[in-house]
Amino acid sequence: MATTTPEEAIAGALRRPRKPLIAKRRHRQVVLTYLFLIPAATVFILYRLIPLGWNFVLSFQFWSPTAPAEFAGLYHYEEMFLFDDVFRDALKNTLIYMLTAPIGIIMALGLAMLVNSQIRSRGLYRTLIFLSYPLMTVGVGIIWRWLYDEKVGLFNFILRSLGLIDEPIAFLESFSTALASVMAAAIWQILGFFMIILLTGLQNIPEHLYEAASIDGANRWRQFYRITLPLLRPSIFLCLIIGIIASFTSFDLIFVMTNGGPGHATELLITYIYRSAFQLSQFDYAGALTVVMFVFFITIAILANFVAGGDAGKVDIN
Amino acid sequence: MASRSMNNYRRWPIHTTLIIVCTLMLIPFYWVIKTSLTGENLFSYPPAILPQNPNPYYFVDAWYFVPFVRFFANSVIVAGLAITANLILNALAGYALTRHFAGKRLVVLVLLSSMMIPFHATIIPAYLITRELGLLNTHLGLALPAFSHVVLIFVFKASFDAVPNSLIEAARLDGLSEWRIIYKIMLPLAKPAVATNIILSFIWSWNDFLWPLMIIRDVDMQTLPLGLSTFQSYFEDTTGSLYAFSVMVLAPGLLVFLLAQKEFIRGLTSGASKG
């Protein structure tokens, strides 16, 4: 090819049929399509898929940053399920903590229906109820800690002024109230988010369904059970999944408000994982804990999907 | 709906309920602002409902005590990196997903399944990987895991899908490269998706706490949430200054939300329902 003169090259190009040119261009586009996907894919492979696999490998090893890896078999899992009381507490607390999702959703559904009615300044109501959601969770924790304070906290002051209690309650320091107190703060923060999602769902329900129902003589309750709830199912499922994820990842609030205490009364799986890895330097054990947390999470997500009717996570691929 | 025909008389219970709910929701805001101005400490019982002798002393105290500007700058740099990366990476990936190509099903499957892996389930290897990359204690290390969010890729894809194919074909015939098609045609037509990407990647980066807590060792590199939590753990009883600092930390995020409220809520509802 090196001996080709420019004239010959041009003549050759002119003789070349048109089809391969288009094919070449198509080929270029396909290559570009893959190229466009690579940067984002790299992030997900590096920070989602590899870590997931690595956790799995780590959970079957004895490993620490200073010692070489050794095969450990099921050692960590045996330790966890047979002997580790803290793990059992953390698992139980995580299960209880997930109740924030249904409780929050029920409250938010009521609010969504109220702010969906044709009243003046409903936009303002929506904003005010939503205002806690974009807050930094660390800040939320600090504010609520102060509200719960045993000596001078607002809640104790109100309860004592109303004569409901004689002795102040140490909300965050006693075993019976600590977890519920943190959950209340979590619900306060996420309530507005649930409300907005459910409100969008409500607004997508066609008005004429209600008109037809009232012509047929269905009362408000019947309309709610037969029209609103069934048509709202995708929105409710969405809130449920996001609420469950939020429960599994509620690290910030616990860390700031109670740091897992008193004892391990507010220890969640995620706080226990952090503690094992970064305070006790048991990276291998924390890896095993993470595997269990992930399996637990996926099981609950699939169950929720099943309850919601089976196709709630469906995405149109094209 | 029956509410259309409701008269004013039947509306007041709704207003009353909502006013009570809003008041309850706002009490924590009020209480922290009040404390930041009066500095009531652990020995002042009963607490005053209205602020007594409000003064800016605790803000000044916190300002001189904490390198607020430094924390703020760190947060801004990390959020800036995350926003830029999300815009570029998600727009490219979103555009690619509007095409048909071999293996698309697999790619979508991988993306969707990585959406079901909460970042919290990856923290230990993520930490080790970041250490291997030599990015502990750096701005890039803080932002890198948040360089792309699957939900936001699908926000771009949905928006690009709405652009008529004939327009893209015409641009191609005019000789525009694929890069320029994205930059000159797709992005200007997908302004809401761009806004959603900016707002959500900002707020997720801005409020992030666990990741900075794990990989930042120097006080100089701390972001606002980390600085706030450190302050709390060191000086628990300097009440007034702690809450003044809290207000300073919470204000910027809240301000951004109030300024971009429409985009924020539309982003959340569209982003979330794509998931």
Describe this structure in words.
The complex is a heterodimer of chains A (318) and B (275). Chain A is 70% helix and 3% strand. By secondary structure, chain A is mainly α. In chain A, a hairpin with a 2-residue loop joins strand 1 and strand 2. The two termini of chain A are 44 Å apart. A two-stranded antiparallel ribbon of chain A has the order 1-2. Chain A folds into 2 domains: 14-58; 75-307, MetI-like fold, CATH 1.10.3720. Chain A has helices at 6-15, 18-58, 75-83, 85-97, 100-115, 122-130, 137-147, 154-161, 178-203, 207-215, 220-231, 233-248, 251-257, 269-279, 283-307; strands at residues 61-64, 67-71. The longest helix of chain A has 41 residues, at 18-58. Chain B is mainly α. Chain B has 2 domains: 2-55, no CATH class; 66-274, MetI-like (MetI-like fold), CATH 1.10.3720. Helix content of chain B is 72%, strand content 0%. Chain B is built from 14 helices and no strands. In chain B, helix 3 crosses helix 10 and helix 7 (150-161) packs antiparallel against helix 10 (191-207). The longest helix of chain B has 31 residues, at 8-38. Chains A and B meet through helix 2, helix 5, helix 6, helix 7 and helix 8 of A and helix 1, helix 3, helix 4, helix 5 and helix 7 of B.
